[in-house]
Amino acid sequence: MAGTMTERPLGVQISAMLRDRGVEVIFGIPGVHNQELYRGIEEAGLRHILARHEQGAGFMADGYARASGRPGVCYVISGPGLTNIMTPMGQAQSDSVPMLVISSCLDPARLGLGRGRLHEMKDQAGAAAAVCDWSLEAVDAAHAFHLIDRALREFTMLRGGVKHVQVPIAALEGLAPSAPAARTTPPGPAAPGTMPDAALIRVARRPLFILGGGAVRATGLTPLFARMGAAVFETMAGRGIVGHDYPLHFGAMLARSEAEAIIGSADLVIAVGTELAEVDLWRETLGHRVPLIRVDIDPAVLNGADTGIAVHGDAARFFDALSGLLDPAHEAATGWDPAQVRAQRARWQAELAVEYPGILPICAALQAALPADTMIYSDMTQFAYAALEAWPMARPGHWHHPYGFGTLGYGLPAAIGGAIARPGLPTIAIAGDYGFQYTVQELATAVELGLSLPVILWDNGKLGAIEASMVRAQIAPNAVIQRNPDFVALAKAYGAAAAAPRSLGDLKTVVQAALSAGRPTLIHVTPATAQA
What pLDDT score was predicted for residue 327? Predict the structure, then answer.
């Protein structure tokens, strides 16, 4: 191709631009329609992770972003490449995970010329827009650079989410100048502009905090809560923000029926970094009868009908400001009883043991086997549903689950992305026998990368949560039993290690060996494992 020394195909310039902006890893699959994005990928110094399906690529990018705090970036082809990744896009959007998807698209002038065009869609950008913050087409190189920079800047300024940029094939092939130099990175989320009336906080005797995923970067909160005599609930995304040794910690039990009455007994409720969404509560009302303070960086969350006092700002900075509102010697005479909190947590644990037979002993065995800094990625499975309530986390941001969108197949590929983001640190995946088969092919990617990744496979031979839901609804269980493969043999066919521990002691030994195996290890666990 002819051109000046600074002009190169736009696909080359996009890869160079991303590397210049700090991107290190690309997840995706090359095809004839996006191959120009791959022309300069090695020269730019980008590492490419070859997924076996675009759904796997998207979940890997999601897991990478959650572990690293940096956006996950994907290259996909037009048409089916984009539709395949739309499920992970919806999941990342739902859970506020920063992800940038760059796809090719057919040239606008050639759309509508008749059926039979490779990968043609009526409205590719519009389809993707349904599951992300925004989905836009770059009309030329300058526009492509602008949209990519806009996405990267918004990741630092706003709540996380997904952006999609599509570029016509002819534009990717055409010559373009280098991207302009990166502008100064804007500051992160701001400190709150206003704070609640200090008197409201000082006089509270039964204050209650609800901590969500938006508060995971706030640290050292236990002394503040102790000074205030405050009780604490965490959402499942906020687990680990406060240690379970804090005497007034109710845990991630917001969805338990008795939680509504407990919240109703508080004389002040402060919800930080949480939407208090359906998947947090699983009921219509929070239960509070007193002022509710909502703290969030997203104005949309603060515009809800149940918001009493809105505080727009970063969670960590809110807690710094809150501490400043209190007299240094302030120590509330709390109305909460630590013994009652302990007893309530024990009752909830007993409920879980009945609801999920055999799972809690396996959780305890895994917890004992894993290093404290293990990062866990779980799929939609009964094992995870039990563990998210029962398994106390020692640190925040170390258990990732497809909370909002609720997609099957998330656990394995997301864990691969997380392991890539944290080389040398322990990562595990937890999946159920049904959801695992949505993305089982990504075992090949983990083998290719030599990841020491334990994959805990809970096999109860059925869609257990759906069966239970049907029974509660007085529907005769239908289509919830499936014939499973020999999972151990299947994993070995991919080149992974595999084991089927027969006891909890064997499970601990297998897991610890898998953390340094140099390849993924499928660990097949059944209800019988806990009974041996």
Answer: 73
- Which residues, in sequence order, are bridge partners of residue 456? 430, 523
Which CATH class name applies to 8-176?
Answer: alpha beta
Q: Name the CATH superfamily for 198-343.
A: TPP-binding domain (3.40.50.1220)
Question: In three state form, how does the secondary structure of 263-323 look?
Answer: HHCCCEEEEECCCCCHHHHCCCCCCCCCCEEEEECCHHHHCCCCCCEEEECCHHHHHHHHH
Query: Where do you find CATH 3.40.50.970 in the chain?
Result: 8-176, 356-530
What does the CA dihedral 357, 359, 362, 367 come to, rounded to 10 degrees? -140
CA 530 to each of CA 359, 395, 489: distance values in angstroms, whole numbers, following the listed order: 7, 27, 22
> Start-end ranges of CATH 3.40.50.1220 in the chain?
198-343
Contact 137, 164 (CB under 8 A): no
**Where are the strands (E) in 106-151, listed by range?**
134-137
Distance (Å, whole) CA 268 – CA 257: 20
Cβ proximity of 135 and 129 under 8 Å: yes
DSSP annotation of 515 = T
Please, what CATH class does the domain formed by 356-530 belong to? alpha beta
Structure tokens at 302: 């603060």
End-to-end CA distance of the chain: 68
- Return phi, psi of residue 314, to 5°: -75, 140
Burial class of 359 by CB neighbour count within 10 A (0 to 12, 13 to 18, 19+): buried
Q: Which residues pair with 299 in a beta bridge?
A: none
pLDDT in tens, 376-400: 999 999 999 999 999 999 899 999 9
Region of poorest pLDDT, from 82-91, 282-291, 323-332: 323-332
Q: Which two structure tokens, joined as six digits, stand for 172?
A: 């990717």
pTM score over 0.90 = yes
